[in-house]
Amino acid sequence: MKCWRSFDFEKRYGFNKIIIFSLLIAMMTFSFTFALMQSVYSEALYAQHFSWFLIGMILIYPLHKFLHTLPILKYIPKMSCKYQMKYFCLPVISINIKDPLPKKRFMISLVFPFVVLTPLLFMGASLNPHYLHYFLMLTAYHTGICAIDFLYLKALTASPKYAVIEENDEGYEILVPQ
Q1: What percentage of the chain carries pLDDT values higher than 90?
Q2: Cβ-defined contacts of 162-167 (< 8 Å, 24+)
Q3: What is the sign, positive or negative, of the torsion defined by CA atoms of 66, 71, 74, 77?
Q4: What pLDDT is attached to residue 70?
Q5: pLDDT tens readout for residues 161-178
Q6: Measured in Å, how far apart are the chain's first and last C-alpha atoms?
Q7: Facing residues of 102 across strands?
Q8: Is the dihedral of CA 165, 100, 59, 92 positive or negative?
Q9: Whether the Cβ atoms of residue 162 and residue 176 lie closer than 8 Å to each other
């Protein structure tokens, strides 16, 4: 196997730029979806059950990381998980796999949390229009988390069909057969 391309967006752009990009995506998502959904469901919005919203905000990120692992369950024995705090308040969970993954499986793993959680949150907003703003804020927050996944997905789409993805300390490498 030879390295076709390696990429590490955190090293390339920096953690701060990635966070700002994610926040911008989240704000645009909330603005667009709230305007759209509020025009469809013109119900009064309630501010009760804020504690449930906060629990949802806390649980979205670990749930997102868990959903990343579901498509690659057979690699669990070769996975390692690291937890660290950035800026004293921002938890970062890193899941690394010691073996190379097929490109398709890795791409499914990247997009799986978005495909599962976003429709569930939209369904919650549709079924509970009085709490539309809570569900749409959770949707926007989750979309912001998914922004980096979409950057990686975009980088992978141009790679050869039978490539495999290997994680290392410097990010990801796309390996192709020689």
Answers
A1: 49
A2: 162/103, 163/4, 163/103, 164/1, 164/100, 164/101, 164/102, 164/103, 165/100, 165/101, 165/102, 165/103, 165/106, 166/99, 166/100, 166/101, 167/96, 167/97
A3: negative
A4: 93
A5: 888 888 876 778 888 887
A6: 6
A7: 164
A8: negative
A9: yes
Q: What angle do CA 41, 44, 47 make, to 5 degrees?
A: 120
Q: DSSP string covering 50-65, please?
A: HHHHHHHHHHHHHHHH
pLDDT score at 32: 97
Residue at 175: amino acid letter: L
* Phi, psi torsion values for 88, nearest 5 degrees: 65, -5
Among all chains, which residue has been given the structure tokens 């990381």? 65
Q: What average pLDDT does the segment 106-123 reach?
A: 95
Cα radius of gyration (the chain): 18
- Are residues 121 and 139 in contact, defined by beta-carbon separation less than 8 angstroms? yes
SS3 of the chain: helix, strand, coil, percent, to 5 = 65, 20, 15
- Predicted TM-score (pTM) of the model is 0.89
Chain-centroid distance, C-alpha 6:
20
Look-up: residue for tokens 């057979």?
74
